UniProtKB/TrEMBL annotation:
<dbReference type="InterPro" id="IPR003029">
    <property type="entry name" value="S1_domain"/>
</dbReference>
<protein>
    <recommendedName>
        <fullName>S1 motif domain-containing protein</fullName>
    </recommendedName>
</protein>
<feature type="domain" description="S1 motif">
    <location>
        <begin position="16"/>
        <end position="83"/>
    </location>
</feature>
Amino acid sequence: MSIQEWERARRRLHFGQRFYGRVVQVPRPGTIGVFVDIGLVVGGFVDVLLLPEDAARWPTVGTKSEFEVWWVDDRPQIRLKPVDPQYRRDDFTELLSRWRPGWPQEHALPVLAIDSPPTAPDAVG
């Protein structure tokens, strides 16, 4: 995918936009996150910080579920958030209030409308 193709694709994405996807790779359960095919020319990725602490609760390869656009930057990859609470960390609401308190206002905004990515809280646990 060229930079121009990625830029065109990014312009069509909105925070909170939902995709039905299939987990295609879990490289190191409990450590990195999961890669998700959402039917676009770029892949999706759910970061370990959004997944349950217990890796046994992570979606496995082949799991089909719904995901939301959580972040998009210059890299040709879409950061996703699981919609199904069983695939999110137990303290997700607390994490959201500390890490991304503006999420409700960002929801439905074009991903290019926000300049900087959310930063991880000092202590996630």
